[in-house]
């Protein structure tokens, strides 16, 4: 059994509809404003975050570079110690003669040299 619904169309109803439309428009404006504020806040957080990530990546690269440079420093220190030790040994005339004969193939008169790889005096 269908009922007939009659809508009253008086001034109060018209004013209420207008008031609801006004409130809906106000809500849309507030939501739009809050949306822009949210976008602005997101941008304000994204830019520093990007810089922070970039700085962290640079820090990691520098740490790797530091480790490589420390390894290189240790290797060069060892080489320097070896060269210094060789220089100290070369001050001895007998050792200097043996070294020159082995490395540069110097020989005394009447000697025959046979080279053996890896036999250079240390």
UniProtKB/TrEMBL annotation:
Write out the entry's keywords from A to Z: Cell cycle, Cell division, Coiled coil, Membrane, Transmembrane, Transmembrane helix
Specify whether Cell division is a keyword of the entry.
yes
Q: Biological process (GO) annotations?
A: cell division
Query: What parts of the sequence cross the membrane?
Result: 33-53
Which Pfam families does UniProt cross-reference here? DivIC (PF04977)
Q: Does the keyword Isomerase apply?
A: no
Coiled-coil stretches:
59-93
**InterPro entries xref list:** DivIC, FtsL/DivIC
What is this protein's record name? Cell division protein DIVIC
List the top taxonomic levels of the source.
Bacteria, Bacillati, Bacillota, Bacilli, Lactobacillales
Q: Which gene name does the record give? A: divIC
């Amino acid at each position: 059994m269908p009922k007939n619904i009659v809508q009253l169309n008086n001034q109060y109803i018209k004013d209420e509809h207008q008031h609801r439309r006004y409130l809906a428009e106000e809500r849309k404006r507030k939501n739009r404003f809050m949306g822009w504020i949210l976008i602005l806040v997101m941008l304000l957080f994204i830019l520093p975050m990007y810089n922070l990530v970039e700085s962290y990546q640079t820090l990691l690269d520098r740490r790797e570079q530091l480790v490589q440079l420390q390894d290189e420093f240790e290797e060069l220190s060892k080489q320097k110690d070896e060269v210094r030790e060789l220089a100290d040994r070369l001050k001895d005339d007998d050792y200097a003669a043996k070294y020159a004969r082995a490395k540069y193939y110097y020989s005394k008169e009447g000697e025959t040299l046979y080279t053996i790889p890896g036999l250079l005096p240390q």
